Amino acid sequence: MEQTFRPSHADFTYEAKYGIRNWQGGGRASARETIGRVAAGAVAKKVLVALQPAFEATAYVTQVYDLAATVDSTTVTGAQVEGNPVRCPDAATAEKMMEAIKRARSEGDSLGGVIECVLRGVPPGWGEPVFDKLEADLAKAMLSLPATKGFEIGSGFAASGMRGSEHNDAFEMREGKVRTKTNRSGGVQGGISNGEDIVFRVAFKPTATISREQQTVTAAGEETTLAARGRHDPCVLPRAVPMVEAMAALVLCDHALRQRALRLES
Amino acid sequence: MEQTFRPSHADFTYEAKYGIRNWQGGGRASARETIGRVAAGAVAKKVLVALQPAFEATAYVTQVYDLAATVDSTTVTGAQVEGNPVRCPDAATAEKMMEAIKRARSEGDSLGGVIECVLRGVPPGWGEPVFDKLEADLAKAMLSLPATKGFEIGSGFAASGMRGSEHNDAFEMREGKVRTKTNRSGGVQGGISNGEDIVFRVAFKPTATISREQQTVTAAGEETTLAARGRHDPCVLPRAVPMVEAMAALVLCDHALRQRALRLES
Amino acid sequence: MEQTFRPSHADFTYEAKYGIRNWQGGGRASARETIGRVAAGAVAKKVLVALQPAFEATAYVTQVYDLAATVDSTTVTGAQVEGNPVRCPDAATAEKMMEAIKRARSEGDSLGGVIECVLRGVPPGWGEPVFDKLEADLAKAMLSLPATKGFEIGSGFAASGMRGSEHNDAFEMREGKVRTKTNRSGGVQGGISNGEDIVFRVAFKPTATISREQQTVTAAGEETTLAARGRHDPCVLPRAVPMVEAMAALVLCDHALRQRALRLES
Amino acid sequence: MEQTFRPSHADFTYEAKYGIRNWQGGGRASARETIGRVAAGAVAKKVLVALQPAFEATAYVTQVYDLAATVDSTTVTGAQVEGNPVRCPDAATAEKMMEAIKRARSEGDSLGGVIECVLRGVPPGWGEPVFDKLEADLAKAMLSLPATKGFEIGSGFAASGMRGSEHNDAFEMREGKVRTKTNRSGGVQGGISNGEDIVFRVAFKPTATISREQQTVTAAGEETTLAARGRHDPCVLPRAVPMVEAMAALVLCDHALRQRALRLES
């Protein structure tokens, strides 16, 4: 790997940008880089709970390869998530995911998947109306995580195939508060939280480093093949759950502080 | 609309955040806000072409409601995009889209859709390795556009259902350059451009303001119904194409300037 | 002036940087540029008073050329400042300043001076401990105003000639609060406000554009002389007073909002 | 010191802001905090020299207490600065400064002073025309250093007492370049470098922590006296020289990179 670019890894682009790269561990392209994010996210969660006691961030795996879990975002708990090593609250599917991951490892291959995250207890009013929309900052935060390929909030890509009359979230009064009957908005309207659960999903590609032989080129420009050695996760999803939660908490904390600064009346 | 919150619009969240809102035109929640972005994007494109003559940004509609177009991102041209009012380069599907939009308008309803964007002529090396990954900045830029619900780059959400051995883009030498045989990475690896076309997609929800009667509440907290009046686009997709191109150009221009600043040798 | 660089103006540096310049009015190098700052400062003052009712920003001219005024920063009022056209609360010296400015104008010359600013009602705790020290942000704000050459807070340059035992502000208890007996710190210690008046001074050079003949060169690189025509202030000090107040209010408002965001207990 | 606020130190303001402080070493209020700045400044200098081989940053002590050195900023060298422990290139005055510092130490007192810095080899065009003027960023950088009370560039506060006809720097042609005969501008006009030496001065107050007895109060609000123990510099000036150079290099490096990004023609 010292001489050869791993396909779909950052080897080639780092070389192109910097003329130097850390081939042993991936350097900043390794998911190890996220340790600082997870640590900071723990602090952000404490700040958020201090500001907003009902605040809660819960992420979980909803898909590994072709295995999709059934999870109700309105009721899922952290205990359910941590109930198994793949961090999928649907225990039956979690079993199958673990088997699929083991099989992929034995075949020298890797698997993609999806993580969903629900943020509860966010009051109406967090987020900015133009560039720093809450969903925009969440999208950037998630796409800054290694191996991510997509982000969607609420209805997400499914909204593309809907009519306004079926997509719109009707308002109603509930316990004296303005609430929505459905939550296709995913808790955000016009870039600003509306008091409903914030629900988003992140797509992860299969790990780039696999031990199967792949076609590639060397740094010297010669075509070759590569079969990676060393310990490489065949599926990053279970370990990416805390990263997603951490980045979400950091984004929310920033917006909570901005909103707090803004409210002159209190 | 002065007293009543439009479902899934920014009416309620603006009221919650600011205690005041522009109900006549949506204010900053109106897509009119993007005029400045489109103007700035035109300047950004000029800067990009000055720095990188091969640079080209082309966005186009690939889906309206249940109508999906067939477009080859490697060959599509701006002329094809501008060949019809819905800005969909698949002429046959474009016809059906126009009919669907007309029907939605006559029914007082609206339609969602998808825009794809291809950025050509970007050299390897643009983008930052950690927080300001190229895809992260593109994701934020796109989710900052009104009515967007999702972003994906390259393989996107489809990557979730793949194995590493089928997802990885094998490297090869072509005309003396390191190139990939496939482009599931969407032109970005490890946050940094790899010299292939950058290809991403943005999901738009159906317009929130529709003339069909909807359940909602008033600013005073009374349940009511609302049927919007006034001129409202039943489908924002065709008019969102230049917004997507503009925001993409602004993101790329920022990264081109950063990269230019960095290269000490030239 | 279209062909010729005014000595000590931005003509040459703009030409060097941009290859183009607005010679008719100075463009962004004209003090007219500060109109937006003054408008924003008016809003910032309103926010500050809403957050901190005792807040008050008062700037005034303390020196024009060789005429130094006697002003007590602890008692000076806005009414005293606005009591004469040079905005110097020492009425006797103000008279002499006006005469000096008239004389300079008649001689085709210009005069420098000093503005002092006192910010009252700032509670302990505003400012950041490292890079964004309150005095650092004030210094940047003031040196971003046209024609400024220096900034000092509290004892300022005079501190250079002092011993710690004479410079240090002894603490004492006053009305149940920790207060300082003297205020050589100028209201800031370690980058953070200590509850005393914030007092700083800004040095302004004499206006660069004068009608006396000066040696200079043309854009084509030929040596020549220039005697400027048109209406040019022989002394910017009186008109710079609101600029100083506005920039100070903007800096303080930013720090007030940051501090407000931070205080979890309230 | 655990219970008692040192006069003119950050003890009280940190307590007011954070409710906690590091009384043993000052924490972020200690000049030890600047180690990271000096390290980063060393990298910035390397980048600057790579971009602009003639670049050179030289800072030196020009005043300690009442002892003012005679230094010619146009010829001073780093070797002269490092020629004695107080980093003052005027050897005779340096001797007296060392004696004065020793005496202050033996008396349990401390001394203020001035550092001057000259930046050579900066081409015309660095700096921004409005808020990020080169002198504004330098002022912020310097006032962010511990114990600083003032900043001035070129003529500085002396400009306040001048007439335009004596202050303006006449232009002339020298070796085919537009140059100024004098350098009261200090190398910056309208926020942008003009190719002359950038020369600025920074005022430092005497160290706050002294072993002489001072009046102060405890964290509990009781009046008391304090005589500090421990090793405390009686004069920070000699050790602040590399801090000033480092911060100057960081500011210049940022502006060099911005300018490099901007120049489309090269």
Number of strands of chain A: 11
| Separate helix tally of chain A | 7
Helix coverage percent of chain A: 25-40%
Low-confidence segments of chain A, given as residue ranges, are none
Q: What is the oligomeric state here? A: homotetramer
Give me the CATH fold name of chain A.
Answer: Chorismate synthase, AroC fold
Shape designation of chain A: globular
Order of helices and strands of chain A: HHEEHHEHEHEEEEEEEH
Structural class of chain A: alpha+beta
Can you tell me the CATH class of chain A? Alpha Beta
Query: What does the average pLDDT of chain A come to?
Result: 95
Q: Identify the biggest protein-protein contact and residues per side.
A: A-B, 100 and 99 residues
CATH homology superfamily name of chain A: Chorismate synthase AroC
- What does the largest sheet of chain A look like? 5 strands, antiparallel
Residue share in β-strands of chain A: 15-25%
- Rg over CA atoms of chain A: 21 Å
Q: Based on the structure given, which CATH architecture of chain A is correct?
A: 4-Layer Sandwich
State the end-to-end CA separation of chain A: 58 Å
Number of self-contained structural domains of chain A: 1
Strand order of the largest sheet of chain A: 2-1-3-9-4
